[in-house]
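Our working data are protein records whose layout never changes between entries. Getting from the letters to the tokens is the skill we practise here. To make this concrete, we reproduce a full record directly below:
***
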Amino acid sequence: MSAALEEVTELAALQPTFRDLIHQAFALRLGNVEPAFDFHRGWNGGWRCRATIPGKVPLDFALLRTSAGALLAFPVPLPTGWRRRGIQDSAGVTWTVDDQGMPIRLR
């Protein structure tokens, strides 16, 4: 994981924000869709979310906090078609992955 990002280990108060971030990521690409959310802990204790849209393959998101304190729901792995546009965090910063698959700021 990038030094600028850390996994969220306490989810309770942050869940609505992560739902909104994931919903927005899908809406930008697929229009008005309603994903189903399955929040669960990853093997290392950080929170993850599997988002499912009927008729589509589920997408797993790592739930992260940036060094600036913004929240980021980052698809793992980031679909190839999403890399150019990237994923926005709660502060409006856009993230993508580098050639090694590590999250980096896009703009």
